[in-house]
């Protein structure tokens, strides 16, 4: 069997998605997600200009060898662009192998370790009444675990909370798209958050698993303090409390709090995790199949983390396409040290462009029984919704200093 074509499809059914489609001489095709939110076209070029020519004529069954060839063969290792591109190839090849076998991918990964995959959904509100409504809406949709994000008094726009369009900071300037500007004040945040969790616990009781994402904004000492102050409310986890490129910083956090910690959605190789895992400084590894080089290396990370009783928590925002989500759900079902899967769902139009076999019900996902990863790309519909330039927001402190978003 030989690869005869590798093409990249960029589509924007509400937001941008980058998909690799690999075709073989026997007519079997495979899909991989390569979406890197806000920097999509860099990955498109990496794939079309540099990777696709290398794939033509090669054997799609040699997944490990192809992965090593692309990773080591580039000489320039790691980084989100490289690893998103390699991830798309890896998942497309797993899709092909599983289709040839006539089995859903999870069967090739060792088979199901559980009946279904538990998820968490996002609730948010500018104030407590709005937040409570949002939590009730997620519970009504079936979610059993809830990530809580809230507005902060005095701040106009905060990560994870819907805000009114800001006339002073237009996202379009002279037809050029500019990032939306959010504002930030760590002291105001630290003062406000514990009271929010106290109120949520009082309203929804002790059993509901609650999560919170600090989105890389705190110093180790600030994170230690927050973790400690949240202990009475027994969080499922506190996510991305610091920008964890400085892995050693987590020693400070860990020394001071028993609030569980989750980190890694912006990481792309196992090397980003070495200190965090070996020293057991975190409880959940957060990388997505799409940004970590695919199913092959993410499986290895999970097995490595398992030795330290660290569990999986694959990143699942809307900017992971249904192709990336499908690959994640197969892995979730198969591995032993599964923790939880983030799941926000996609718009109806996105689900039409990417028809998928995975299903969501009663707060749980299942990958379905279709051979491969179980996603079909409607290329005509994809073409009807072309790429639209877009950026993630940026964050500024009260005096204008750029801060981590
Ligand atoms: O900000 O995926 O936990 N989820 C997150 C996401 C990220 C986006 C960035 O593209 O932090 O919402
Ligand atoms: Co996050």
Detail the poorly predicted runs: none
Approximate strand percentage: 15-25%
CATH topology of the largest domain: TIM Barrel
- The secondary-structure class comes to alpha/beta
Proportion in helices: 25-40%
Question: Main attributes?
Answer:
20 strands; TIM Barrel; ten-stranded mixed β-sheet; Enolase-like, domain 1; binds (2S,3R,4R)-2,3,4,5-tetrahydroxy-N-oxo-pentanamide; binds cobalt (II) ion; three-stranded antiparallel β-sheet; 405 residues; 36% helix; 2 domains; alpha/beta
Q: Would you kindly provide a written description of the structure presented here, covering whatever features stand out?
A:
This protein folds into two domains: 3-103, 2-Layer Sandwich (Enolase-like, domain 1); 108-371, Enolase-like C-terminal domain (TIM Barrel), CATH 3.20.20.120. Helix content is 36%, strand content 19%. It has helices spanning 40-55, 63-73, 80-101, 105-108, 128-141, 186-204, 220-230, 249-256, 274-278, 295-306, 322-334, 348-353, 379-383, and strands at 3-11, 17-24, 29-33, 117-125, 146-150, 172-173, 176-177, 181-184, 210-213, 237-239, 261-263, 284-285, 311-312, 341-342, 354-356, 359-361, 364-366, 375-377, 394-397, 402-403. The strands form five sheets. Strands 4, 5, 9, 10, 11, 12, 13, 14, 16 and 17 form a ten-stranded mixed β-sheet that branches. A three-stranded antiparallel β-sheet has the order 1-2-3. The protein has a three-stranded mixed β-sheet with strand order 8-19-20. Helix 5 links the parallel strand 4 and strand 5. The longest helix has 22 residues, at 80-101. The N and C termini lie far apart (45 Å). Bound molecules: (2S,3R,4R)-2,3,4,5-tetrahydroxy-N-oxo-pentanamide and cobalt (II) ion. (2S,3R,4R)-2,3,4,5-tetrahydroxy-N-oxo-pentanamide (EZ4) is lined by residues 37, 213, 215, 265, 315, 317, 319, 392.
């Amino acid at each position: 069997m030989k690869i005869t074509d590798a093409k990249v499809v960029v589509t924007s059914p509400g937001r941008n998605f980058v998909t690799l489609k690999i075709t073989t001489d026997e007519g079997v095709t495979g899909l991989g997600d390569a979406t890197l939110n806000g920097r999509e076209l860099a990955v498109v070029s990496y794939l079309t200009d540099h990777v696709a020519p290398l794939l033509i004529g090669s054997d799609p069954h040699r997944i490990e060898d192809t992965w090593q060839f692309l990773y080591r063969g580039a000489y320039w290792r790691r980084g989100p662009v490289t690893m998103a591109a390699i991830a798309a190839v890896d998942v497309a090849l797993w899709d092909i192998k599983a289709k040839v076998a006539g089995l859903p991918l999870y069967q090739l990964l060792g088979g199901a370790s559980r009946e279904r995959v538990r998820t968490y959904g996002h609730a948010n509100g500018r104030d407590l009444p709005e937040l409570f409504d949002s939590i009730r809406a997620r519970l009504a949709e079936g979610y059993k675990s809830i990530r809580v994000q809230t507005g902060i008094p005095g701040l106009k726009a905060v990560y994870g909370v819907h805000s009114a369009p800001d006339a002073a900071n237009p996202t379009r300037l002279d037809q050029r798209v500019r990032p939306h500007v959010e504002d930030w004040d760590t002291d105001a945040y630290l003062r406000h958050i514990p009271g929010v969790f106290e109120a949520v616990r009082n309203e929804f009781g002790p059993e509901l698993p609650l999560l919170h994402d600090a989105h890389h904004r705190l110093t180790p000492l600030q994170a230690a303090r927050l973790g400690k102050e949240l202990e009475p409310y027994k969080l499922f986890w506190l996510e991305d409390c610091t920008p964890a490129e400085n892995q050693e910083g987590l020693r400070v956090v860990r020394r001071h709090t028993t609030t569980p910690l989750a980190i890694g959605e912006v990481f792309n190789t196992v090397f980003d995790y070495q200190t965090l895992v070996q020293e057991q400084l975190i409880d959940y590894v957060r990388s997505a199949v799409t940004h970590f080089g695919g199913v092959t290396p993410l499986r290895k990370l999970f097995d490595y983390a398992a030795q330290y009783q660290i569990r999986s928590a694959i990143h699942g925002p809307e900017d992971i396409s249904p192709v990336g989500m499908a690959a994640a759900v197969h892995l979730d079902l198969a591995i032993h040290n599964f923790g939880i899967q983030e799941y926000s769902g996609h718009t109806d139009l996105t689900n039409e462009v990417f028809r998928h076999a995975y299903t969501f019900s009663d707060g749980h996902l299942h990958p379905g029984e279709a051979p491969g990863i179980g996603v079909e790309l409607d290329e005509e519909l994809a073409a009807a919704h072309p790429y639209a330039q877009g950026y993630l927001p940026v964050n500024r402190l009260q005096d204008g200093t750029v801060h981590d978003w």
